[in-house]
Amino acid sequence: MAGRRLSMRKIKEVLRLKWYHGHSNKKIALSCKISRTTVSEYLNRAERAELTWPLDTGLDDGDLEALLFSLKPTIASSERSMPSMEHLHRELRRKGVTLQLLWYEYKEAHPDGYQQSQFCRLYRQWRNKLDVTLRQEHRAGEKLFVDY
Fold it and tell me: Which of 6, 82, 114, 128 could form a disulfide with 10 if both were Cys (CB 3.0 to 4.6 A apart)?
């Protein structure tokens, strides 16, 4: 279901063929010209929404879409804790320390925390905001710099 959603008419047809006629997912897929995994996904969504056939007459297409495609509540990013980026940056300077290793340690301490891809993405976003400068310390008169 990575593509576009089916029309409500086709979704209702999938539900009707399954619940009223009792057809298999394969037969429904052939009849509606969609994949079997799409049929399974829509049937799973309907079961999670606790829909039954026949559909409620007061249920219009907008309400049905809201029931089928409502997002489940997720943990807000503000509720997830993340170690300080400065700490991660200092640790990465040490020999043998990788971002993956830091994520493993983070995940042990926070099992409901960010997954590895999000953890790395947040760190890289922070790192890209750093002001990169090269400080050169030298004694006066020791070197000569010429700028053409």
Answer: 6
When pLDDT is averaged across residues 119-123 and rounded to a whole number, the result is 93
CB contact at 8 A, 10 and 34 = yes
| Cα–Cα distance for residue pair 106/82, rounded to 1 Å | 8
Cβ proximity of 25 and 39 under 8 Å: yes
Number of folded domains that form the chain:
2
Which domain range does residue 28 map to?
8-69
DSSP for residue 33? T
Q: Which of 28-32, 37-41, 44-48, 63-67 has the lowest mean pLDDT?
A: 63-67
93 and 62 within one domain:
no
d(CA 120, CA 99): 7
Q: What average pLDDT is seen over the chain?
A: 85
Amino acid at 24: S
